[in-house]
Amino acid sequence: MKNHTMRRALAAGAGLALAGTLAACGGGSETGGGGGEGATADEIEAALQEGGELTYWTWTPQAEKQIEAFEAAYPNVDVNLVDTTGTAESNQALQNAIAAGDGIPDVVQIEYQSLLQFQLPGQLTDLTEYGFDELESLYTPSTWGAVSQNDGIWGLPQDSGPMAFFYNQAVFDEHGVDVPTTWDEYLEAGKALKEADPDVCIGNDTGDPGLTTSLIWQAGGQPFRTEGETVTIDLADEGTTKFVDMYQQVIDADILCDIPGWTDEWYAALNEGTIASITFGAWGPGILEGSVPDGAGDWRIAPMLTYDGTPVNAENGGSAEAVPADAPNKLLGVGFLKWLNSSDESIEAFMETGGFPATVKQLESDEFLTYESEYFGGQAINEVLAGGAENVVEGWQYLPWQAYANGIFADTAGQAWLGETSLADGLAAWQADNVQYGTDQGFTVTE
Amino acid sequence: MSAAPPSIRPAATEPLAPARHRPSRLTARVSRAGAGFVMPFLIAFALVFVAPLAYSLYLSLFRNRLVGGTQFVGLSNYADVFVDPKFWDGALRVMLFLAVQVPIMLAIALVAALAIDSGRLHGHRFFRIGLFLPYAVPGVVAAMMWGFMYSDRVGLTGSLNDLAGFELLVPYTKQWLLVSIGNIVTWEFVGYNMLILYSALKTVPTETYEAAAIDGAGQFRIVRHIKIPAVRGALVIATVFSIIGSFQLFNEPQILKGLVPNLISTSYTPNIYAYTLSFQGNQVSYAATVAIVMGVITAVIAYIVQLRGMRRDS
């Protein structure tokens, strides 16, 4: 009856755990990771010329075009593309493959916030040994910071998600409300819109952990610090408190629609024009163009809302590609990765199909910056988005178990959006859950 | 019958030895044949039932950590489960659900079965299939369908509230959410239980009803003294199934969580808790422990209900 889903879940979980146990028994430290590896740029190039087969896991729609270009440049290499459909699915599949010691990809897409989850147990290749430290100057500081933690380079940035303020100009015009540029104005504009039409809300949020952490980041908070196996969690630091004081007013004013993002209801509301604005990462234009056709011509992009007029920004989403420590064709994988995320040819193919790069050169190119988007009423959107990348606060870190932390966010912090608790208390309870979890997972957690 | 009583045979005499052995060879042959017949079942049973269970038990003796890997911890996971407030939060919620939803659902199923069996209902075949149809809808689809109808903005609830002019229905609130889930589950399983009870009613010989009618019994008397006693066994079975189903509550809250994330926690039911632990939290061993403890609780309660039901039967 109702139990089949659970049975399957348990069976799958059981399989995963068995593999984990066996791997633990086998003590696979010799197969990968360890010192003495690495290669020079020439050796990598020679390996690519010689050729072979490699497997690449990703959920980016741009991969096919990139692989086409790669195989044209290196005809002896054959790339097997596996579409992992999304970040959660990909993480789970990668965990399974690594635990089983079988079917491990040579190159895999990992969201910045999930990198540590794989790096800490020693499951990723340190690309410093392959001379990747020389590539640092190619990337924006925030994306490079995300891949180079704990004394190593664990991937190459593919894209980035500096946030921006996406708004429906037509809705603001219809009700004669000015588009906000600061959070204070956002609060006022939200009240004005609601007064003009109770069905319209300036934004939607039911307690999205990804958005919340990004907004804490923007406010200058650094609630999570990871130093090896020591994790510090402080969701009451100065920056976090600054965000909480502001956002509590937004919640209390009841100006947000309680529609969770990425649901049918959400897309319907965006198409109807009842949600007047969204704070998205720079990957946002693709989402609106693809799923909100009724908003064509009405939407615009402005720099991220500020607290006091000084432009300060944060990232939301974004991925790197990495080479697993036990990748079967490591040298080829390293070579492909280097080409994939640092060659002009690949990055241009990535951008042609709507990707927002992480490389400074492309972000500053005229062609990119002057591109006028029809959907956004002819606005040069990349100029705004790229401008936002320059103001991203450096030094932010996610928890080593961010995916799980986000999963349990609604249990505690999410209650603030229901009015059951204050945002400050909700975040404190979320912190307590994370301290407990981190300790259970073997970290030394301090508050 | 296999071995002869020793008293009528002198012990250990040479010619008798084969006679003593023959029956045991027969026994062996018989048991080999028997084993052959039960083997397919036993293999399937061992593979799909015993092995996962044993494996879960084995898993529950370890602890998975991001730092330090997997280590043997004996029974300490069990000690943790018994004082885990999140586990008990979910367990008590499904018990409350069980205590309210199952009686309502079975009462509706019984009334429906009696009505269809009464022969006084026009188009009883239509009603029978109509009531049963929701059971054929996959649980996930049913939950999505109801989840949409419950929406105050785009669903049926919104239309009804607009019609009433005030918040008549508020399925997505802390107070009403469990009732909303109960409504979905009842809708899904009334037909299934009705069919169990209806088939039990069909086994009553028509002569019994004729005799009762000749004795002057009215319809309500027949229901009380013949039909309800006749379905008691089936009712016990339906109750046991429903108890198991309630304790395994998963699909409906898990689907609704996507629509109202803050109302359904990751420990809303024991199954959701185990799922979260294992697939988001990398705690497969602890998830296995939660599943085993919940399984034992379910088995005990189902067994008590069955014992009580059967005693009243005799």
Walk me through this protein's architecture:
The complex is a heterodimer of chains A (447) and B (314). By secondary structure, chain A is an alpha/beta fold. Chain A folds into two domains: 36-160 and 317-363, D-Maltodextrin-Binding Protein, domain 2 (3-Layer(aba) Sandwich); 164-314 and 381-446, D-Maltodextrin-Binding Protein, domain 2. Helices cover 45% and strands 12% of the residues of chain A. Chain A has 20 helices and 13 strands. In chain A, the strands form four sheets. A five-stranded mixed sheet of chain A has the order 2-1-3-12-4, with helices on both faces. A three-stranded antiparallel sheet of chain A has the order 10-5-11. Chain A has a three-stranded mixed sheet with strand order 7-8-13, with helices on one face. In chain A, β7 (224-227) and β8 form a beta hairpin. In chain A, α2 (41-50) packs across α13 (330-342), α3 (63-73) runs antiparallel to α14 (344-352) and α9 (209-218) packs across α10. The longest helix of chain A has 23 residues, at 4-26. Residues 1-35 of chain A have low confidence and may be disordered. By secondary structure, chain B is mostly helical. Chain B has two domains: 6-50, no CATH class; 80-313, MetI-like fold. Helix content of chain B is 73%, strand content 3%. Chain B is built from twelve helices and two strands, in the order αββααααααααααα. Chain B has helices spanning 16-59, 76-82, 85-117, 124-136, 139-149, 156-164, 177-202, 206-214, 219-247, 251-259, 270-279, 284-313, and strands at residues 62-65, 69-72. In chain B, β1 (62-65) and β2 (69-72) form a beta hairpin. Chain B is flat and about 80 Å long. The chains are: A alpha/beta (447), B mainly alpha (314). At the A-B interface, α1, α11 and α18 of A face α1, β1, α5, α9 and α10 of B. Chain B: Keywords: Cell membrane, Membrane, Transmembrane, Transmembrane helix, Transport. Chain B: Belongs to the binding-protein-dependent transport system permease family. Chain B: This is Sugar ABC transporter permease. Chain B: It is found in: Cell membrane. Chain B: Residues 1-20 are annotated as: Disordered. Chain A: Residues 1-19 form the signal peptide.
